[in-house]
Amino acid sequence: MQQVYGYIRVSTRDQNEERQVIAMREFGVPEENMVIDKQSGKNFARPGYRRLVKKLKPADTLVIKSIDRLGRNYDDVLEQWRLLTKEKQVDIVVLDMPLLDTRKGRDLIGTLISDIVLQLLSYVAQTEREFIHQRQAEGIAAAKARGVKFGRRPKNRPADYEIIKKAWCEGSLSARAASQQLGVTHRTFMKWIGQDNSKC
């Protein structure tokens, strides 16, 4: 018996998949046939997707909201599309792009149009991802040039740091004992010593 499955993906556990779930319901995908992954689309090593592909049989239909829900890597999306439609002989419906519905236009022209649209959309999805990374890198570089510091905020030195440092300099305290008295790690204490212009 032919089955209709819905594949839903959000990039993080904080993102809400409800919009995709509603679209699947409206299409007629049974709740038990909806598969959700809360994972990045950078590759296809996703547990839900892998289980779903194993279930799919010839003439089943796979529904996705948009092409980037399937994946974000141009070459990988094209390879998965080929695997599903050619090898597993599954139909794919992309709700946001009616041209990407392999149930329609099974003739040569229909297949050609579908392939062209798919390649274009996959390319756009990957290019947008690369632009985002580029903008992030440029933003970080610009912020660093303005003197913005990234990473964990440096720990403030306790009020008695200078006294304990002096004791360490005089040899009456070991570095480990000094760090314990200051309530910091040995590494942090030695880092502070290294940052001081006049160590002792």
Automatic annotation (TrEMBL):
Protein name: Recombinase family protein
SUPFAM superfamilies in UniProt: Resolvase-like
PANTHER family, alphabetized: DNA-INVERTASE FROM LAMBDOID PROPHAGE (PTHR30461), SERINE RECOMBINASE PINE-RELATED (PTHR30461:SF2)
UniProt cross-references to InterPro entries, sorted A to Z: Recombinase_CS, Resolv_N, Resolvase-like_N_sf, SSR_resolvase
UniProt xrefs under Gene3D superfamilies: Resolvase, N-terminal catalytic domain
Keyword Lyase attached: no
Origin species: Agathobaculum hominis
PROSITE patterns: RECOMBINASES_1, RECOMBINASES_3
